[in-house]
Amino acid sequence: RPRSHTVTTTSSSFTANLSASSSTLAYDREFLRTLPGLLMVTEIVLGLLVWTLIAGTEYFLYPAFGWVMFVAVFYWVLTVFFLIIYMTMTYTRIPQVPWTTVGLCFNGSAFILYLIAAIVDASSVTKELDSHNYNSWAASSFFAFLVTSCYAGNTYFSFISWRSRTLQ
């Protein structure tokens, strides 16, 4: 015997708002022309150099280089993530997150941990350790200090932004 099936669908306002807002993906071209944007791209490029120079060696035999790899890869991934957030202006869609505080904490922690990693990297590079990997480790140490200075600059700009938001 045939049965009659009635299907009722409802849509929430959240779903309607989500589909309306996701159809227009914002893109901020001007972010890359600002000093924090340029520093972020520089952090990505130089950070990539740091971890690829180490990854091409037998770093896993030396715990110090394992630490440098962890810091370099961790902050490289997060910096790419934050660049995407800033370029797509996703931060404007999530106003509940205190983005100035998040940026300050991110850049401050990146500066401190990258400084430690750069010092560890530089102090671990010796020809006696492994002459085959010496050039790669020395270059990674140099680039680690450059990335550290970029994160220091972005920490400064994040602090200025955070300070201006907390004074309002």
From TrEMBL:
Keywords (A to Z) from UniProt: Membrane, Transmembrane, Transmembrane helix
Keyword Transmembrane helix: yes
Localization of this protein: Membrane
Entries under InterPro entries matching the protein: MAL (IPR013295), Marvel (IPR008253), MARVEL-CKLF_proteins (IPR050578)
Domain MARVEL: 31-163
Membrane topology annotation: Multi-pass membrane protein
GO molecular function, one term: structural constituent of myelin sheath
Residues annotated as signal peptide: none
Recorded GO CC terms: membrane
Domain of life: Eukaryota
One BP annotation, GO: myelination
Transmembrane domains' residue ranges: 35-54, 60-85, 97-117, 137-159
PANTHER family: CKLF-LIKE MARVEL TRANSMEMBRANE DOMAIN-CONTAINING PROTEIN 8, MARVEL-CONTAINING POTENTIAL LIPID RAFT-ASSOCIATED PROTEIN
Protein name according to UniProt: CKLF8 protein
Organism: Pygoscelis papua
Lineage: Eukaryota, Metazoa, Chordata, Craniata, Vertebrata
